[in-house]
Amino acid sequence: MNKLKIGVIGAGSISDMHLQAYAKNHNAELYAICDVNRERAAAAAEKYRMQHVYTNYADLLANPDVEAVSICTWNNSHAEISIAALRAGKHVLVEKPLCRTVEEANAIEVAVRETGKTLQVGFVRRYDANAQLVKHFINQGELGDVYYAKASCIRRLGNPGGWFADPERSGGGPLIDLGVHIIDLCWYMMGRPKPVSVSGNTYHKLGNRSNVNNLSFYKAADYDPATNGVEDLANALIRFENGASLLIDVSFTVHAKQDEIAVKLYGDKGGVEIEPELAMVTEKYDTILNMAPQTDSKSIDITQAFCNEINHFISCVQKGTAPISPVEDGVSMMKMLCGIYESAAKGREVLL
Ligand SMILES: NC(=O)c1ccc[n+]([C@@H]2O[C@H](COP(=O)([O-])OP(=O)(O)OC[C@H]3O[C@@H](n4cnc5c(N)ncnc54)[C@H](O)[C@@H]3O)[C@@H](O)[C@H]2O)c1
């Protein structure tokens, strides 16, 4: 089988995870890279020995040899670049979130339908080995009917600033950046039930806390302490058509003692904690059992999860099979996220 020629658009932080994973895949050839920042693109091209360097994504897409692209740019360009790539005949792996609005998401879905090309949404947590193991157990009925899930992704100090803090480029704060991961993981495990309503709150209480001393945190390349337009914290309750519900909270900053990640699902036959440490709970012979599945990593192995995501993308493109994180799921996710922002703005529950 011929190696698939890959173009990567956006050469910032997360692109290296994609590049590393493609470099390890024997069915892929890293071929072209693009970033509006030429130095960044050139550095990646040198590191991964890519032949073609661009500063305009349209030029990369005009290269007929590029067959598939990873889109690792700011959220505001995901829709435009995805649609242009599909219409240029390329297969697309687009980073999460799919885009910023439901309208953008619908336009991407139309482009996927009309071109027949593969589009995989980068819901990387689905591709972690522990997540796949839990999914298998759930599919085998081990948890029974999963009727409730709750998840938290709390950073006590972690507003990255730059484009992340600019709603125009990001579409929002911790909800769209972190919430997308934990909502998606729960929703996928619950069997992707149809969301029918959301009730959410967002808070702009603490700002970006650039004043804090003695504690370092990740900052975007173009960090500017004077600029921050996104929420510090969001919470939400999502109701599904089948009666199940999902409760989440996420923050870039809050007066918490420590950072926290938790992803927990409850069914009528058993429960599971995917984060902070894989664990399962059930009842047998009138006894509650806490079980600790023996796997290589107790928590997500992010490097391996990206490799699995990219291997899956290459395989779907080469075999013509549907990805496990298709565009429809990206559209549903945008309905939930945008519904939560709308509910927070209106101060009441919103029907989807
Ligand atoms: N899956 C994950 O766990 C994960 C983690 C971090 C970021 N992300 C996502 O990846 C994307 C990028 O995030 P990041 O942290 O790498 O940001 P980043 O700022 O480090 O990198 C983004 C790069 O895209 C470039 N860029 C922006 N618009 C462009 C355009 N139109 N054409 C070409 N280049 C353009 C920027 O110059 C920058 O180098 C975001 O959508 C983010 O949500 C996903």
TrEMBL record:
InterPro entries membership: Gfo/Idh/MocA-like_OxRdtase_C, Gfo/Idh/MocA-like_OxRdtase_N, Gfo/Idh/MocA_Oxidoreductase, NAD(P)-bd_dom_sf
Annotated Gfo/Idh/MocA-like oxidoreductase C-terminal domain residues: 135-350
Organism the protein comes from: Paenibacillus gansuensis
Protein name: Gfo/Idh/MocA family protein
Gene3D superfamilies, per the entry: Dihydrodipicolinate Reductase, domain 2, NAD(P)-binding Rossmann-like Domain
Family from the record: Belongs to the Gfo/Idh/MocA family.
Domain of life: Bacteria
Domain Gfo/Idh/MocA-like oxidoreductase N-terminal: start-end pairs: 4-123
Coiled-coil ranges per UniProt: none
